[in-house]
TrEMBL record:
Record-level GO BP terms: 'de novo' pyrimidine nucleobase biosynthetic process; 'de novo' UMP biosynthetic process
Keyword presence, Transferase: yes
UniProt-recorded name of the protein: Uridine 5'-monophosphate synthase
Catalytic machinery residues: D315, K317, D320
Binding sites annotated in the UniProt record for substrate: D262, K284, S379
Documented EC number(s): 2.4.2.10, 4.1.1.23
Matches recorded under CDD domains: OMP_decarboxylase_like, PRTases_typeI
Length: 405
């Protein structure tokens, strides 16, 4: 049985080494919190890490989770050293989950020796919504491992336990945020006003499994949770009319497939579009590589798009000043603005490229009938689209011309 006195001593020690602090902090889920846990600091305090590992091992035994044949897996990255220590102390095999598969060697996502059907116990440091646990669960289960339980150091009590339970994973927490606050209050390390403020925050801000959260009785949807929502729900939130249209197609046809029709012959493209039309939401073209491009080809392609209910995207990657892209988009041999629902655009020229494209949309069309995809990243080796560029592109996409992007 985990000793209550040791629990309180460890809680105070974690506070003393600044493993949790009070203030105003932006969380992964996109909301601000008056308390923040940073258990990464324990790697600089071997005595604290050793004590915590011993206590977690006892806790696992108390919960009867220490059954034979169970692998341990720490959620990357903070929980990895803890899982390693517990593995050594308990003589239990450990698995390592990579955040991304390596591009060389075995290209494994899960490292370690295991068989499909083996049990795996997850170790995590701090849980808010439980999303990191669930990401690890998905990767482990994809390899055939069975995951039913997770042991965490601190539960912030904001919905994580419920969210993991919904996915078949029981969460067992050594500490809760309420317990830590009460312990620090009794030790006269924090004021009662702090305890009340944090308690009020927890009550007012519960996070759901889809990443949305309830704040003061109102459901708030942030960018993180949009991708976890149904296409129908996202349709109502989309600001760009073409985004709404695309999401409707995806919901109706139950497909996220975009086919890159990188062919050079118009007849081959039309035959391909007719064959795959029922299964795709987008057909992507490179019109300037088509050797026999014509108006008849465009009309036939539009007819197939209507027949099979998919949108057309010309992968033009516009990247010039406004006046030039306006002519490239609306004029020339291809007159892309007349037939392509969507086009791809580099953010490099700034907002001027979007203004130029908008100006080229003919009087028989509206901005609402056209849209652009801004390229924030490229997969080519040596691409100069670094993190700073990607962040600036995302800002451009979400704060400017939201009716068009």
């Amino acid at each position: 049985m985990v000793c209550a006195l040791k629990m309180k001593d460890l809680a105070i020690k974690l506070f003393e080494i600044n493993a949790f602090k009070f203030g105003d902090f932006k969380m992964k889920v996109g909301i601000n919190s008056p308390v923040y846990f940073d258990l990464r600091v324990i790697v600089s305090h071997p005595d604290v890490m050793d004590t915590l590992a011993d206590m977690l091992q006892e806790f696992i035994y108390d919960k009867k989770l220490n059954t034979s044949g169970v692998h341990l897996c720490g959620v990357p990255y903070t929980a990895l050293p803890l899982a390693t220590l517990i593995s050594i102390k308990a003589n239990k095999p450990m698995l390592i989950r990579r955040k991304e598969a390596k591009k060389y060697g075995t290209k494994k996502l899960i490292e370690g020796k295991f068989n499909a059907g083996d049990m795996c116990l997850i170790i995590e440091d701090v849980v808010t919504s439980g999303s990191s646990i669930l990401e690890t669960v998905d990767d482990l289960r994809s390899e055939g491992l069975i995951v039913t339980d997770a042991v965490v150091v601190v539960d912030r009590e904001q919905g994580g336990a419920q969210n993991t339970e919904e996915r078949g994973v029981r969460m067992h927490s050594l500490f809760t945020l309420s317990y830590l606050l009460q312990t620090l209050l009794e030790a006269k390390l924090i004021e009662e006003s702090t305890v009340k403020a944090v308690a009020k925050y927890i009550e007012a801000c519960q996070i759901r499994s889809d990443g949305s959260f309830i704040k003061n009785g109102t459901t708030v949807v942030n960018d993180l949770c949009r991708t976890r929502m149904s296409f129908e729900a996202r349709t109502d939130l989309a600001k760009c009319p073409l985004a709404k249209e695309l999401l409707k197609v995806m919901a109706t046809k139950k497909t996220m497939l975009c086919l890159a029709a990188d062919l050079t012959n118009s007849e081959e493209i039309l035959n391909l579009a007719d064959a795959v039309g029922p299964y795709i939401c987008l057909l992507k073209t490179h019109c300037d590589i088509i050797s026999d491009f014509s108006e008849q080809f465009v009309r036939s392609l539009q007819s197939l798009a209507r027949q099979h209910n998919f949108l057309l995207m010309e992968d033009r990657k516009f990247a010039d000043i406004g006046n030039t892209v306006a002519q490239q988009y609306g004029g020339g041999l291809y007159r892309i603005a007349d037939w392509a629902d969507l086009v791809t655009v580099h953010a490099l020229p700034g907002q001027g490229v979007l203004k130029g494209l908008k100006s080229a949309i003919g009087v028989d069309k509206t901005v609402a009938s056209r849209g652009v995809f801004l390229l924030a990243e490229m997969s080519t080796e040596g691409a100069l689209t670094d993190e700073k560029y990607s962040t600036a592109t995302m800002k451009m996409a979400t704060e400017m011309d939201t009716d068009f992007v």
